[in-house]
Amino acid sequence: MTDQHKSTAGHLLSLFTILIWGTTFISTKILLTDFTPVEILFFRFLIGYAVLFLLYPRPIRTKTFKEELLFISAGLCGVTLYFLIENIALTYTLASHVGVIVSIAPFFTAVLAHFFLEGEKLNVQFMIGFALALTGIVLIGFNGSLLQLNPVGDLLAFLAPAVWAVYSVLMRKISGLNHHTIGSTRTVFFYGLLFMLPVLFFHKFNFDLDRFHDISNVTNLLYLAFGASAICFVTWNLAVGILGAIKTSVYIYMVPVISVAASALILHEQITWATLAGTFLTLTGSYISERKHSTIGKRELRKTIRNT
Q1: For 59-116, how does the pLDDT look when each residue is reduced to its tens digit (9 = 90+)?
Q2: Four-residue CA torsion sign, 28, 32, 37, 39
Q3: Distance separating alpha carbons of residues 60 and 185, to the nearest angstrom
Q4: CB 259 within 8 A of CB 95
């Protein structure tokens, strides 16, 4: 496969992943009627881990504890913390709010990349775009009325992309270790599930299986487990290995468009002028801030591909 074909494949993988992830807020919001945030998280990744194990049962053998620590940290950030924070945020605020706010993940990714990855430096253009996006987030949070502000949910939603940025940088480093992508993703899931166990203990996990008699619960949970977890984590990690953390994260800008539209169509959430204006400013600010990352030199692309 040529460099151009691999680059195209990376873009297609990113687009596919974001189309699925942009609607996960809807499924989670529906499941929150009968499940707690922790229960959704545990069932989702337990099923996802089982699927990945069936696809690639061979263990990943790291050479040093430092390499193993990358997987441990990725499991903590990308599975346990990110999705737990996001699911809890959905219990306090609208799904459309969460979908838009988490779209600022590329900003946090760029900040971390500035310090931990080569060739990524912050500039004035980045700060201007960041200011526009933050203005958009404020509009979405207020939703046209001071009385509709959900400070706890919106602040949690703001914290989630910061955690995801750490995961993105970690996966970029993991992709350079040349392990099998499915095996690497499964290992990350394993540590994520491991970190969930204490949380399950303190939140009184409910083993009641009657909830699974509801077809809506089953279909939404399987959608999160098979599609959004087992499949999409693999496709996203493949894309990061091909395109890099920053360029792949640009696709997260599409999340608010997908989630806001889906929230209106499926959950019948009201879309106000503030939500629309906030969405526009968030996307515009994100684009301006990250525009310099929209192109990648051939030399860097070839280096990235050789490391996958």
Answers
A1: 999 999 999 999 999 999 999 999 889 888 888 887 767 777 787 787 788 788 777 7
A2: negative
A3: 10
A4: yes
Query: Between vectors from CA 264 to CA 11 and to CA 85, what angle results, nearest 5°?
Result: 65
Number of neighbours of residue 78 by Cβ within 10 angstroms: 25
Delimit the domains of the chain by residue range: 3-306
| Segments in the chain forming alpha helices (H) | 3-21, 24-31, 37-55, 65-75, 82-90, 95-101, 105-116, 124-142, 151-175, 181-202, 215-222, 232-243, 245-249, 255-262, 273-290, 298-306
Is the CB of residue 109 less than 8 Å from the CB of residue 249? yes
The answer to whether residue 261 scores a pLDDT higher than 80 is no
Most confident region among 138-152, 182-196, 278-292 by mean pLDDT: 182-196
Residue-level pLDDT at 258 = 79
**Residue with structure tokens 């696809």?**
55
For residue 251, which of 83, 86, 103, 74 has the smallest C-alpha distance? Answer: 103
Residue 29 corresponds to which tokens in the numbers above? 């919001």
Confidence of residue 286 (pLDDT cuts 50, 70, 90): confident
CA dihedral 133, 160, 246, 53 (to 10 degrees): -150
Of the candidates 96, 104, 64, 102, the one whose C-alpha atom is nearest the C-alpha of residue 82 is 102
Q: State the pLDDT at residue 153.
A: 84
Residue 203, sorted as left (phi over 0), alpha (psi -120 to 50) or beta, turns out to be alpha
SS3 label, residue 295: coil
Contact indicator for 175, 307 with CB cutoff of 8 Å? yes
